[in-house]
Each structure stands twice: as structure tokens, then as C-alpha cells.
Task: inverse folding
């Protein structure tokens, strides 16, 4: 994934990190971030102080809470999840959020999800 940096003229950067152990918990894990609150805990940092990527490998029956953010993008990479109000997202589905509070996701059969938390729009 490519995220626009806050500064122009920077060389593209590439990074990877093994987050297998963290994902095994079934919890939502921050794997990429430029947010100041993740400065010392994120495996991969980016030059964008308004964005963070959260990932979860949810076992069957698991519920995770997506953080509140002005903008969000949820992608279901595998399985399916239920949102409050009986809305269901299937594998390959995505949803954008705007000014959403915390979002509770539940997966009856297991799922893998990616969620971009963003605190600024794209110019």
C-alpha cells in the first residue's frame, strides 16, 4: 500500500515487519502508523502523521473495536464480519467511514480485516 507523505520530494520507502505473533491474539494490531501515539509501539512507521493501518485475524466468535476517527477505510480480506445493526460485510467488501465513533465488528466464522484510521482527508 502506498500512503502519501506529508513532505514532497522524499524518496519512496519500503519496510516490512513480522507481526505474526501479535496477530495470533485475534486482537486489532497497529502495524503501520505515523500517529504520534504509536511512535514507540508500531512495527513500521510512515511519514504521515495522520494515518495508521490496523489489522486483525479474527478467530470465529471474535469481536474487535475499530478506533474512532474522522475518516476510515475498512476492508475484509477474508471471511465476513457483522457491524452493528445487522449489516454484514463479506470477503472483498470495503466500507468508508466519516466521523465515526468506535465501530464494533464481530465475526461468527473468522475473518481477516484491514482498517485505515485517518485524521485528515486527501488533498
Result:
Amino acid at each position: 500500500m502506498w500512503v502519501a507523505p506529508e513532505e514532497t520530494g522524499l524518496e519512496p520507502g519500503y519496510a516490512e515487519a513480522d507481526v505474526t505473533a501479535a496477530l495470533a491474539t485475534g486482537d486489532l494490531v497497529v502495524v503501520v502508523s505515523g500517529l504520534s501515539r504509536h511512535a514507540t509501539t508500531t512495527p513500521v512507521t510512515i511519514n504521515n502523521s495522520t494515518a495508521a493501518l490496523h489489522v486483525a485475524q479474527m478467530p470465529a466468535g471474535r469481536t474487535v473495536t475499530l478506533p474512532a476517527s474522522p475518516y476510515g477505510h475498512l476492508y475484509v480480506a477474508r471471511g465476513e464480519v457483522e457491524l452493528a445493526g445487522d449489516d454484514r460485510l463479506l470477503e472483498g467488501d470495503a466500507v468508508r467511514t466519516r466521523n465515526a465513533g468506535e465501530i464494533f465488528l464481530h465475526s461468527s466464522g473468522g475473518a481477516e480485516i484491514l482498517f485505515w484510521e485517518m485524521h485528515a482527508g486527501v488533498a
The mean pLDDT is 93. DSSP finds one helix and nine strands in the chain.
